[in-house]
Amino acid sequence: MTHRILVRSILIDVPSSDYDRTQAFWATALDARSRRGTEHPEYHVLDDAAARDRVLVQDVGTDSARFHIDIETDDVEAELTRLRACGAVEVERHEFRHPWPVGRRHAKKRTDYYVVLRDPAGLPFCVVPAESDDFPERSREVD
């Protein structure tokens, strides 16, 4: 099924023990202002980072440090089908704290969740409903 995709965010996942030091490092490294997330305090958004896409630092508790991306799409289920076919494995689904349509204005249908997957090497990434302002212009059509 034809739908659209776009990398929305790059996330720097950091254990709680290293969180403050690491988010301060990346704010400096990317010449950004670090701002704690209001809805999700486990994140710091790096505003005006020297980056093409949005960059966030995420507290992952006792999990290991890594980077991951969020892929936004106007059809989450179609994108999950496409990614599973090329080797991704679904790990878990998460419901949003706020119901549709808060922030998910480009999705084709009601989507109150996002999905965590792993690529063939085991790296995590997320598929999320489309919400970026520039999604219509920057996204790519895929089958």
Can you describe this structure?
With 143 residues, this protein is of the alpha+beta class. The protein has a single domain, classed as 2,3-Dihydroxybiphenyl 1,2-Dioxygenase, domain 1 (Roll). The protein is 17% helix and 40% strand. The protein contains three helices and nine strands. The chain has helices at 19-29, 76-85, 135-138, and strands at residues 3-14, 33-36, 43-47, 54-59, 66-73, 89-95, 113-118, 124-129, 140-142. Strands 1, 2, 3, 4, 5, 6, 7, 8 and 9 form a nine-stranded mixed β-sheet that branches. The model has no long low-confidence stretch (mean pLDDT 91).
In brief:
This is Glyoxalase-like domain-containing protein. It holds the Pfam family Glyoxalase_6. The chain has about 140 residues and is an alpha+beta fold.
Count of helical regions? 3
Q: Could you spell the SSE succession in H and E letters?
A: EHEEEEHEEEHE
What's the Cα radius of gyration? 15 Å
Are there runs of 5+ residues with pLDDT below 50, and where? none
Outline the secondary-structure elements:
Layout: E1 3-14, H1 19-29, E2 33-36, E3 43-47, E4 54-59, E5 66-73, H2 76-85, E6 89-95, E7 113-118, E8 124-129, H3 135-138, E9 140-142
Parallel strand pairs: 1-4, 5-8
Antiparallel strand pairs: 1-5, 1-9, 2-3, 3-4, 6-7, 7-8
Protein name: Glyoxalase-like domain-containing protein
Domain Glyoxalase-like: 10-128
Pfam families: Glyoxalase_6
Which structural traits does this protein have?
143 residues; alpha+beta; 2,3-Dihydroxybiphenyl 1,2-Dioxygenase, domain 1; nine-stranded mixed sheet; 3 helices; globular
